[in-house]
From TrEMBL:
Transport found in the keyword field: no
Protein name: LacI family DNA-binding transcriptional regulator
Any Pfam family the entry gives: Peripla_BP_1
Domain HTH lacI-type: 3-57
Length: 332
């Protein structure tokens, strides 16, 4: 016979209502009590009846997560971070791939809403459709990593200026005089902001800079660096994302150029393969885990009706300098 919340309550010596509120992530229950209830539920083999819970509370306990493109290592890591946080909160996830396509993203969100998700974590892809803007009016939504144009929703972004300032000091110390910036599309807030920040910062320190705008795909990075090399070889290439960097590395290798020796690279996004296999690359760590944690906390409060006007939260990025040798050195 399946374990009931009455048995969990008896095991812990608490009221049934306390168990129920803990299992439903009610903010009226302390974290300590909730953790005890969740631990007992796991130990006793309790399984939530999702349909019964939804009928009784009007909540499904399911959060929708739609990322820019799941094949992008940054978004794969973001989805993983969100999933770990959801497990801590005993929430279930429905994860969808926006494919960096506004219409695909609209369809994915629409399907999730048909499944009665309680809230949505979203990395906007390009210029959002009017339908998507209407969707997020109907459901608690947090935009993460990118802002959602034309929508009044909670937002969690990285604050990159301090890390870029440190990167410019590194560029100056190394004596780099020419640079190529390969940015993401201007239809995403992150792509446009990073392009402007990198290009202007390089010019401010007197570095000759060329900028190439592309998409968040590996092959796009390879094509952009090939185009840049037809003119000349820069001292350093600065990439707006790790997936672009992957293509740039491949493109440099095709031209017989060595990363860190013939051409330096700096990039946004600390993803595992980049740090472990390419220690010669400077990385701006946008703190994926921290952004995911804040976004989940906000969404949980928004679902519980405990917030007023939409929030804007930022997480300060950090520069990791190339290793000489060993693990990356974190700037003070």
């Amino acid at each position: 016979m399946a374990t009931t919340i009455r048995e969990i309550a008896k095991e812990l010596g608490v009221n049934i209502s306390t168990v129920s509120r803990s299992l439903n992530n009610s903010p009226s229950v302390s974290a300590q009590t909730r953790d005890k209830v969740l631990e007992a539920a796991r130990r006793l083999g309790y399984r939530r009846d999702a349909r019964a819970t939804a009928l009784r509370t009007g909540k499904s306990g399911i959060i929708g997560v739609v990322v820019g493109d799941i094949v992008n290592p940054f978004f794969a890591q973001l989805a993983d971070s969100i999933e770990k946080k959801a497990q801590d909160l005993d929430l279930r996830l429905m994860i969808g791939n926006g494919g960096e396509d506004p219409h695909q993203q609209e369809q994915v969100v629409g399907t999730m809403m048909e499944h009665q998700i309680d809230g949505l974590l979203l990395t906007p892809a390009g210029t959002p459709t009017n339908t998507l803007r209407n969707y997020v009016k109907e459901i608690p939504t947090v935009a993460i990593d990118r802002s959602l144009a034309g929508a009044n929703v909670d937002t969690v972004l990285s604050e990159d200026s301090p890390a870029v300032d440190e990167l410019m000091k590194h560029v100056t110390r190394q004596g780099y005089r020419s640079a190529v910036v390969i940015s993401g599309p201007a239809t995403t807030s992150t792509g446009l902001n990073r392009e402007r920040l990198l290009s202007q910062s390089l010019r401010d320190i007197g570095v000759k800079t060329r900028t190439y705008r592309t998409t968040y795909h590996e092959e796009s990075g390879a094509e952009a660096i090939a185009q840049a090399l037809r003119e000349n070889t820069p001292d350093i290439v600065l990439c707006a994302s790790a997936v672009i960097t992957l293509g740039v590395i491949a493109g440099l290798h095709r031209h017989g150029l060595r990363v860190g020796e013939d051409v330096a690279i700096a990039t946004f996004d600390k993803v595992p393969w980049l740090v472990t296999t390419m220690p010669s690359i400077a990385v701006i760590d946008t703190k994926i885990d921290e952004m995911a944690d804040i976004a989940m906390q906000i969404l949980r409060q928004r679902i519980g009706g405990n917030l007023g006007r939409p929030l804007m939260k930022t997480v300060t990025s950090q520069l990791l300098l190339p290793a000489e040798p060993g693990a990356p050195h974190v700037t003070p």
